[in-house]
Write a structure and sequence with these properties.
By secondary structure, this protein is α/β, with parallel strands linked by helices. It has six helices and ten strands, in the order E-H-E-H-E-H-E-H-E-E-H-E-E-E-E-H.
């Protein structure tokens, strides 16, 4: 079964009906196509993540500007447990946490009837932002096989601020680090099976 996700810019509520379709069409194998998906919000990716994982997944942390105003060095992986846990599919909650806390620890709890078969994630150099914590977490936990090309390597939380009526400024407000302490921005995630030509994709997808 092939499930293509073109963007994570929609709300979690808008994503849910598509996850419902996956629940109703359980198969032995699931291919999630994230090629050319430039991201969106973590909140909108959580319904899919909860469906894919079998066990609790500690995805990593958002480290905020508030942290860097107080500390002059990065937290250790052991320090991550001091941060508030974020597990709800709510854009408003994650933005509130980024503005009021030093960091947010992303935790994905599997849903009751999560997918039990094999998972393959398709990526290319335009797979970025929100996709990358998902790709890294599923690969690192050995829950999915990553197929395709290396990803973009850009994962920051950013917000737009109105300067004038006709001018808005986009500002990074939090940086993302994986559960084992790697900064995702600048880290291209390499596939486990490489495919970058049309004939390769035809062979993999049939």
């Amino acid at each position: 079964m092939l499930f293509t996700v073109k963007t994570f810019s929609a709300s979690a509520e808008e994503i849910e009906p598509y996850i419902d379709s996956l629940r109703n069409l359980q198969r032995d194998n699931l291919i999630v196509d994230l090629r050319n998906n430039s991201g969106g919000t973590i909140a909108s990716a959580l319904p899919l993540a909860r469906f894919l994982v079998k066990d609790t997944l500690y995805g990593g942390v958002f480290i905020t500007q508030k942290y860097f105003k107080i500390h002059d060095q990065l937290p250790s992986v052991d320090d991550y447990k001091k941060f508030d846990i974020f597990s709800e599919a709510s854009f408003e909650l994650i933005i509130k946490g980024i503005h009021t806390t030093e960091g947010l620890c992303l935790v994905v709890y599997p849903e009751k009837n999560s997918f039990s078969g094999k998972i393959y994630i398709l990526t290319n150099r335009y797979t970025g932002s929100t996709c990358e914590p998902l790709v890294y977490g599923l690969k690192h936990s050995k829950r999915a096989t990553i197929v395709g090309e290396k990803t973009y390597g850009g994962m920051l939380n950013g917000e737009k601020f109105n300067i004038t009526k006709s001018f808005r400024l986009w500002v990074p407000t939090a940086d993302y680090y994986t559960s084992d302490g790697k900064r995702l921005t600048g880290l291209e995630l390499h596939p486990m099976l490489h495919a970058n030509r049309r004939k390769h994709w035809r062979g993999l997808l049939g």
